[in-house]
Amino acid sequence: MGSATDARAVQLAELRRRMAAVPARGAEVAAPPPVAVEPVRERLPIPSALAGLLPESGIPKGSVVAYSGAGSLLTGLLAEVTGGGGYAAVIGLPRLGLLAAAEMGADLGRLAVVAEPGPDPMEIAAVLLDGLDLVVLGLAGRSVPPSRTRVLAARARSKGATLVVTGGNWSGPTLRIDSRIAGYSGLGRGRGRLCSVHLDVRVDARSSQPRTGRLDLCPHNGRVEWIAPETDSPPVPAMEISGDVAS
Hints:
This protein is an alpha/beta fold. It has helices at residues 2-20, 48-51, 71-83, 98-103, 121-128, 146-159, 243-246, and strands at residues 43-44, 59-60, 64-68, 88-91, 111-114, 134-138, 162-166, 175-185, 196-205, 208-220, 223-227. The protein starts with a helix and ends with a helix.
């Protein structure tokens, strides 16, 4: 008799435990804590050939890029942004060719040029970051104090605009892109038609190892484009490429 009573008591205790675990009618079951998800930052349009050299295959909007080297790659970036419906500005780079931008597909109606910005081009850049997708700022050899770079970087980030600085010293950019012209194709003994320009590119980012590669600037589909070379790529047809594209 005692053993049966004890077994019943154990059974009732187990049933009470299970019932206590059942939520009351109308009560919501507690949801598991949310998992933190890193927000995906929108990216700036770039020449597709450049994507393979960049972390996460792009340049996040709101970032600062320090650039050095051939102006033709900057022109390609401007062409991608404006040709894709965005707005851009160039400050303090009077020799950056608009003809080259047009040959690469730029919409010049969406591109503002401030060739002579005066003594404080950073102030002009700060204003233009407020309403444009891309601002390219020529520093004319200046070394910008860290206190100033932090202010402009914060403004670019808050406005979702990308700032590209070139021709000077800038501390703490999101990316550093360096390029140099590695050669040309189509010229024989200094004469003939220029078919393509070869560019060696190096990308340094805060959170990844440096990446290097080669890009070719050549005629493609009726316009001048940056193309990632392939060992089995077909020969490029001869076409006149303007001097400011090749620079």
